[in-house]
């Protein structure tokens, strides 16, 4: 399941640089996570780094984008493959 950043975000800039998939960017009002790129850090870390480091705990799982661990791993592998082709 991809993560999402809620409106409680204080735009502290902690989450964006720790995302290994470049899934986080600054939105109109606060940071946002691209669910197509979010793997919850599967393939990189044991825990989602953005949620781990967020000082206001505003990065929950996004129920609108349910995925299994296997699906997250497949997404990670596809993202790595695209990166290798670039």
UniProtKB/TrEMBL annotation:
InterPro entries: 4Fe4S_Fe-S-bd, 4Fe4S_Fe_S_CS, YfhL-like
Transmembrane annotation, as ranges: none
Protein keywords: 4Fe-4S, Electron transport, Iron, Iron-sulfur, Metal-binding, Transport
Keyword Hydrolase: no
GO molecular function: 4 iron, 4 sulfur cluster binding; metal ion binding
Domain 4Fe-4S ferredoxin-type: 1-29
Cofactor: [4Fe-4S] cluster
Metal-binding listed as a keyword: yes
Domain of life: Bacteria
A Pfam family hit: Fer4_7
NCBIfam families to which the protein is assigned, alphabetical: di_4Fe-4S_YfhL
This protein's name: YfhL family 4Fe-4S dicluster ferredoxin
Organism: Inhella gelatinilytica
Organism taxonomic ancestry: Bacteria, Pseudomonadati, Pseudomonadota, Betaproteobacteria, Burkholderiales
